Automatic annotation (TrEMBL):
InterPro entries: Lipid/polyisoprenoid-bd_YceI, TTHA0802/YceI-like_sf. It comes from the Bacteria. This is Polyisoprenoid-binding protein YceI. The keyword Transmembrane applies. The chain crosses the membrane at residues 35-53. Keywords: Membrane, Transmembrane, Transmembrane helix. The keyword Membrane applies. PANTHER family: PROTEIN YCEI (PTHR34406:SF1). It comes from Paraburkholderia rhizosphaerae.
Length: 250
């Protein structure tokens, strides 16, 4: 606002400079006077812009942060899925053209971290079946409807781990019971432990994981639209679990 007022004032001042006859009329043919006024306005704009940048732009604080994949450093206890840092994505073949992607928007989970790390720990994830999002509203209704997930009758998709087999220093195969559409079948996910650390913003103990796997939807009674829509469902998961620091309000 101050910038606009200053520029407007400068323009008015230029317009009111009297000509040689004493008139207040701005002679448009007076090229020299116009050039001088334009230079004044440009100078004011430069000063105003510099002032705006210096006062309106607050430098971001640089956050330095490291995590460790040393599982023995992770405090034992119950961790909850961070409500703001996760994703669960399914994709399935669509007419052989591409893999159609859908995500879920409401998920909760709990990680029971114990001594000996991933081999001795367990996780349980619950997905709200009605939160499926294909980015196509009409298709959302069809997927959560009676012919597919039947979310009204089977509102939850649930995974409960049963066994972990280590394949690397910070990776392994996590097997668990997956329940969809009222049917439970074993599913194995390839899991990577991304690391543990104290979150620099929340100060909570935080663990991060990536996982992926696949399952046959027909094994869960989901055969609608086959073979136009494939049977093999790919799963991709990103998840952060955290535990508030001791003494924090819960």
């Amino acid at each position: 606002m101050a910038c606009a007022i200053a520029c407007d004032t400068a323009l008015r001042a230029c317009a009111s400079v009297p000509d040689d006859a004493g008139s207040n009329h701005w002679r448009r043919r007076d090229v020299k006077k116009t050039a001088v006024c334009a230079a004044v306005v440009r100078a004011l704009l430069i000063v105003a812009a510099a002032t705006f940048v210096s006062t309106a732009c607050t430098p971001l604080e640089v956050v330095t942060h490291t995590v460790s994949t040393n599982e023995s450093r992770v405090p034992v206890g119950q961790y909850k899925l961070d409500a703001n840092h996760w994703s669960v994505i399914f994709d399935v073949d669509h007419f052989k053209y591409s893999r159609f992607v859908m995500r879920f928007d409401r998920v909760t989970g709990q990680l029971d971290w114990r001594e000996r790390g991933m081999e001795n720990s367990s996780v349980a994830i619950t997905i709200d079946a009605a939160s499926v999002d294909t980015n196509v509203p009409q298709l959302d209704k069809m997927v959560k409807g009676d012919d597919m997930l039947n979310a009204a009758r089977y509102p939850e998709i649930r995974f409960v781990s049963t066994h972990f087999e280590r394949t690397g220093e910070a990776s392994g195969k996590l097997t668990g019971d997956l329940t969809i559409h009222g049917t439970t079948q074993p599913v194995t996910l390839d899991v990577k432990f991304n690391g543990y650390g104290r979150d620099p913003l929340t100060k909570a103990d935080t663990l991060g994981f990536s996982a992926e796997g696949r399952f046959s939807r027909s094994r869960f009674g989901l055969t609608t639209w086959y073979p136009a829509v494939g049977d093999d469902v790919h799963v991709r998961i990103q998840a952060e679990f955290d535990k508030p620091p001791a003494g924090a309000a819960g």
